[in-house]
Design brief:
Blueprint lengths: L1 H6 L3 H14 L5 H12 L3 H14 L5 H12 L3 H12 L6 H13 L3 H14 L4 H13 L3 H13 L5 H14 L3 H14 L4 H12 L1
Length: 212
């Protein structure tokens, strides 16, 4: 009945039906997720978060509640609360790379780029194949002016096949040129050529810089 109400756009009816379902079967944790989704659809984020928190207190073995709690606060752009929930979950699942990535994203949104960089560095040390983390690390390092670290992150992503790495490396070269740091620009270009030896467009773009 709750699902039928949702399909017709009647979230109030859906909420009443799912609450009745939970009264009938209070042990079914999947109903908590369904009810919280209805609250979210109604933009009742605090109600959704409170529901999940209460349910976690009753079912502490359901650690996914903590991750979901972080997701709810993240949707509501309450990044401090989201960070706190993700950190609570990470205390239990310290090597969950997707969870760490979510934490890094919230830290960046909360204007804490250096903390986000530390978390992303943890991820790439655990799994260098997680190239989205490497690109994110490169982007944040570039934005904070940490060019050597950004370069290393992009090179790591490039070596593992992430095509976005090339754009980050190009931006670093242009930044070095703008800052009149031609030695560093040439060194980065040489690394780019080694990483992409068959890319004729890159060679045409940067060969003149090497010749200066």
């Amino acid at each position: 009945m709750s699902e039928a109400y949702q399909k017709t756009g009647d979230n109030v009816g859906a909420l009443m039906a799912i609450e009745k379902a939970r009264q009938i079967d209070s042990a079914d944790v999947s109903l908590v997720y369904q009810q919280s989704e209805i609250h979210i659809a109604m933009e009742e984020f605090e109600a959704a978060a409170n529901l999940v928190r209460r349910s976690y207190l009753k079912n502490s073995e359901e650690t996914d509640f903590l991750t979901y709690l972080g997701d709810i606060h993240r949707l509501n752009k309450n990044f401090p609360a989201s960070i706190a929930a993700y950190r609570e979950a990470i205390a239990i699942k310290s090597r969950d790379k997707e969870l760490l990535y979510k934490l890094a994203d919230c830290l960046a949104e909360d204007q804490k780029p250096y903390l986000a960089i530390d978390v992303l560095n943890q991820i790439v040390q655990m799994d260098s194949n997680f190239t989205d983390a490497s690109i994110f690390l490169g982007n944040l390092a570039f934005e904070t002016g940490w060019l050597d670290r950004a370069e290393n992150a992009y090179l790591l992503a490039g070596r593992h096949g992430n095509k976005e790495a090339i754009y980050g490396l190009q931006n670093i070269v242009y930044e070095y040129i703008q800052k009149k740091r031609k030695t560093e620009a040439k060194q980065t270009i040489e690394k780019i050529f080694k990483l992409y030896p068959e890319n004729k467009e890159l060679k045409a773009e940067f060969s003149s810089v090497l010749e200066e």
